[in-house]
Design the sequence.
């Protein structure tokens, strides 16, 4: 019964598991944009300003959207009605709680979707924003995803691991792996006490090691392609680690811990219809990688 309770709770966290400089436009044309952990490949640049889809900010607990096709007005309000915003296509002003507000680029409608400037998102809608100048990366998070980010970086170990496995994974310059045939299991490991570093093994065809950075993105650091027989990056060395084996084709899930001497202690094995990206609590384990 306890295992089933954790399955439902952590799978939900993992599935949920996937971010702006407001004061200047210098970043606008060159920075990559991530909203709720997802890369925005269809941003629009207007007069040096980056515009993102308003719908990319969808958060059931935060914003409600409506569109009047006759007036071409988009209406947005927070769930608690503390903020009400109206935007009209082609205009550089918005109405926020009944007051006219200047925005730094005109609202654009493209393929039926409304695009708004990044600055407006931070100043008027209250999204959590961050600009990583070194990586030229804009990070936007809605309230629910900001709370999830807090858990990922310094919250409950088991929940953080579930979130980490659901993150968008960036491969950078690593070569694409050659697919195998008949994928039937995923095997993932975390160093003992940690959530921000992990490995993924895809049915033995390929292995990958990721580190979660300060932006809450999983960055590939090492990759082994057993099909193409090639390796990229630096392989990690976990002195002791916990593992989770999801044999999804057979509906079997196994988890355990390997100590510093290499001894494998299986902690559980059970049948479950859906266990993708599942992690379970390890009795007595305490988190050691929480970031302030």
Sequence:
């Amino acid at each position: 019964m306890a295992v089933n309770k954790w399955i439902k709770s952590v799978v939900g966290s993992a599935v949920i598991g996937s971010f702006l400089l407001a004061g200047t436009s210098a970043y606008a044309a060159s920075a990559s944009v991530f909203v709720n952990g997802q890369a925005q490949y269809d941003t629009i640049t207007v007069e040096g300003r980056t515009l993102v889809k308003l719908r990319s900010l969808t958060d059931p607990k935060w914003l409600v959207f409506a569109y009047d096709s006759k007036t071409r007005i988009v209406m947005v309000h927070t769930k608690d009605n503390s903020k009400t915003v109206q935007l009209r296509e082609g205009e550089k002003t918005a109405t926020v709680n009944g007051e006219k507000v200047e925005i730094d680029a005109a609202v654009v409608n493209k393929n039926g979707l409304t695009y708004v400037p990044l600055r407006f998102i931070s100043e008027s809608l209250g999204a959590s924003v961050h600009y990583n100048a070194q990586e030229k990366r804009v990070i936007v998070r809605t309230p629910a995803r900001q709370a999830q980010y807090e858990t990922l970086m310094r919250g409950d170990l088991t929940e953080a691991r579930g979130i980490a496995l659901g993150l968008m994974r960036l491969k950078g310059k690593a070569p694409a792996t050659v697919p195998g045939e008949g994928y039937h299991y995923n095997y993932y490991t975390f160093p003992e006490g940690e959530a921000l570093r992990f490995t993924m093994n895809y049915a033995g065809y390929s292995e990958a090691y990721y580190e979660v950075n300060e932006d809450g993105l999983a960055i590939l650091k090492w990759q082994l392609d057993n099909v193409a027989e090639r390796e990229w990056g630096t392989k990690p060395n976990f002195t002791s680690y916990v593992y989770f084996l999801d044999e999804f084709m057979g509906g079997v899930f196994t988890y355990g811990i390997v100590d510093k001497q290499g001894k494998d202690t299986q902690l559980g094995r059970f049948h479950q219809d859906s266990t993708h990206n599942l992690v379970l609590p390890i009795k007595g384990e305490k988190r050691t990688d929480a970031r302030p």
Q: What stands out?
A: The two ends are 34 Å apart (CA to CA). Residues 2-13+146-271 form one domain.
